Amino acid sequence: MSDKGTVDKLKGKAEEIAGTVTGDDKKKAEGLMNQAIGKVKETASDVKEAIEDGVEKIKEKIDRD
């Protein structure tokens, strides 16, 4: 997850705008879905980083004791 969902969010926003401008509700819905997917990826990446940091802190504590 190197982009943390940024690509999906940007693609989704572009699709949403295109759907709004053209009146294409399907394209607009796809854009909203892609934005949601991007947000989920971003959140998952943040959770993964927090867990990795927590594990690292536990390892450091164990090594000191």
Short description:
The protein has 65 residues and is an all-alpha fold. It has helices at residues 6-22, 25-64.
Mean pLDDT across the residues is 94
Order of helices and strands: HH
Portion of residues in helices?
Answer: over 70%
Structural class: mainly alpha
Shape: rod-shaped
Number of helices: 2
Domain CsbD-like: 4-53
Protein name: CsbD-like
InterPro entries: CsbD, YjbJ_sf
Family: Belongs to the UPF0337 (CsbD) family.
Helix-strand blueprint:
Elements: H1 6-22, H2 25-64
Highlighted features:
single chain, 65 residues, mainly alpha, 2 helices, CsbD
Account of the 3D structure:
The protein is mostly helical and 65 residues long. The protein has 2 helices and no strands. It has helices at 6-22, 25-64. Helix 1 runs antiparallel to helix 2 (25-64). It is rod-shaped and about 65 Å long. It starts with 5 loop residues before the first helix and ends with a helix. The model has no long low-confidence stretch (mean pLDDT 94). Belongs to the UPF0337 (CsbD) family. This is CsbD-like. Residues 4-53 form the CsbD-like domain.
